[in-house]
Amino acid sequence: MRILVVDDEARYRAYLHRILGSQGHDVEVARTGREAIDAGIRFQPELLVTDWMLKNHLHGLHVSRVLRAIDSEMPTILMTGFPSEELRTEARIGRVLHFIEKPFEVESLVAAVRRSLHRSEVRRESVPFGVVIADRSGFLVSTSERAREMFRRTTAGARPGNLRDLFDAENLAALEGSLDEWVHIAAVAPGRIRWWVRSRRAGDVRIFVLLPERRRFLHTDARIALLLDLDAPLANGLQAGRRLLVIDEYSDPNPSYLDALEQIGCVAYRAERLELGLRLFREDPAIDVVVMDCKPREAIEAALVEMRELRPEVEIVGTSETPNEADTFGRAGVSRQLHRPWRVGDLVALLQE
Question: Residue 141: which domain range?
Answer without folding.
Answer: 130-227
